[in-house]
Fold this protein.
Amino acid sequence: MYRTGGRSGRRLSASEELRNNGVVKNVGEARETPTGTPQEELATGERSTRNRVARSILDHGPSTVADLAGRLGLTQAAVRRHLDALVADDVVQPREQRVYGARTRGRPAKVFALTDCGRDAFDQSYDKLAADALRWIRERFGGDEAVVAFARARLAEQATAYRRAIEAADPDQRTEALARALSADGYAATARSAPVGEQLCQHHCPVAHVAEQFPQLCEVETEIFSELLGTHVQRLATIAHGDGVCTTFIPKAPRATEPPKISETTHNASASTAGRNPA
């Protein structure tokens, strides 16, 4: 959702350029601008490629220079040049790559992640309005339980489409089917294998800034995933908590032929860990 004020305290200077130059939908091929091109055309080409770099980070999560070069067909030197400009504009920030399991020798590769201002450039939802509405619901209609009830009702509607996608998939492809359904709703989701299960990764969250104030949104989403997939799931990380990607672990377990019906009283998910990093 669109954030009216970033945590860094200043607005993204290039946000309007990002929006006006198709940062969300620009998928054209990057080309080096020939020598002698007029300055205005040169600047436009630079912005277009820079937008593609930012969009690739949005779609795939925190990325190394090598990752971006491979995905975009650019040299690593060109990627570094664009990243330097994006860092200067507070669109992306460098961070140490998080390593799960045994750490290999040497320093972890540096990855680049979107800042709050960088995420703001991709969407124009009204998170302040949504947060104000949820706060009003909480104060007038039963505290946190009212917020939970709202979140369940809202996600139950979305889950109807997710259920159809899961029911149409083979049992071992249900997480992938859920990821595709989530991507259709703007979550840029992917599924990948893990040593003892699968990980569902959401590289974008349209309600991340509201979920910072109302973690019930993350908790209920985790419950819905559990009910849809018919197994206990565990939320490992969320964008709302400051992580680069929302990550949900789905263990390998026998699943029923038909996913169980969603109800407001089922609580199979690890809601207590929603929005928090694993210990």
